[in-house]
Amino acid sequence: MSKEAEPARADKELDLSNAGRGVWLVKVPKYIANKWEKAPGNIEVGKLKISKQVGQKAQVSLTLSDAVIEIDPSDKIPRDHRLDVSVVTKQTLGVFSHSIPPVSTREDAPPEQEKLFMEGRIVQKLECRPYADNCYMKMKLESIRKASQPARQVKSLEKIVHNFKPVSDHKHNIEDKERKKAEGKKSRDDKNAVLDMLFNAFEKHQYYNIKDLVKITRQPISYLKEILKEVCDYNMKNPHKNMWELKKEYRHYKEDDKKEDSKGGGSDSDSD
């Protein structure tokens, strides 16, 4: 039994010089993260304030800068937030960064390896929460209003729309196009070859519908009907309505064969 090839593993250097540094893991609301993603890298995004009184827990707050607030003036968000602090005791969490060296243009230069850095060990988790002021309540009300709007709405038309197009085609139109496309790919065989196929088929059964004859001869339906009209009769009355049979001058059935053949052939209606 052959073993599957294991994926190649590349050794990377891990820099642990900052492994003893304590860092904070801060969770911020989505609306702050969206603002920070749009902010350029050369501006101040906010200020962190830590105040501590004797015998009490440290109070941590975040105030967003004017530059961040004004990134999208129509999107109003709260400026001041508090940070709830929790100490990490039963977990060992770290922050890592990845450095990819630039591609060297020199052919003789040795390839540089990718590097991993441990930026520090997480000692505290902080969750950023807004104060329930008027700005926050308006923002939540607007988000609820947008979420309650249906994805599709009915609108009344005041004038006739001339450029209306259906979203999807009807099933019978698709089937008709596929049928015509399939017929277009069928090549017309020699007339004598088609006649031989038809006579061989009518030796087995006396009556056929057009669908069965198309399957047998694999000819375009319009071409096949031209040949059928020369050697066959089309029945318009029961019990063999909408079915083809050979003309009298081409028939040579026995009586027993006729009785057996009443069970043969197709029974689907012809769309002639």
Shape: elongated
Count of DSSP strands:
9
Structural class: alpha+beta
Largest sheet composition: 7 strands, mixed
Helices and strands, in order, run as EEHEEHEEEHHHHHEEH
Task: Work out the strand percent.
Answer: 15-25%
The count of helical stretches stands at: 8
Could you walk me through the main structural features you see in this protein, from its secondary elements to its overall organization?
The chain has helices at residues 30-38, 66-69, 134-148, 171-185, 191-204, 210-217, 221-231, 255-261, and strands at 13-15, 22-27, 46-51, 59-64, 80-87, 94-99, 115-130, 232-234, 244-246. By secondary structure, it is an alpha+beta fold. The strands form two sheets. Strands 1, 2, 3, 4, 5, 6 and 7 form a seven-stranded mixed sheet that branches. A hairpin with a 7-residue loop joins strand 3 and strand 4 (59-64).
Secondary-structure blueprint:
Layout: E1 13-15, E2 22-27, H1 30-38, E3 46-51, E4 59-64, H2 66-69, E5 80-87, E6 94-99, E7 115-130, H3 134-148, H4 171-185, H5 191-204, H6 210-217, H7 221-231, E8 232-234, E9 244-246, H8 255-261
Parallel strand pairs: 1-7, 2-7
Antiparallel strand pairs: 3-4, 4-5, 5-7, 6-7, 8-9
Q: Top keywords for this entry?
A:
31% helix; 21% strand; elongated
How would you summarize this macromolecular structure in one to three sentences?
The chain is of the alpha+beta class.
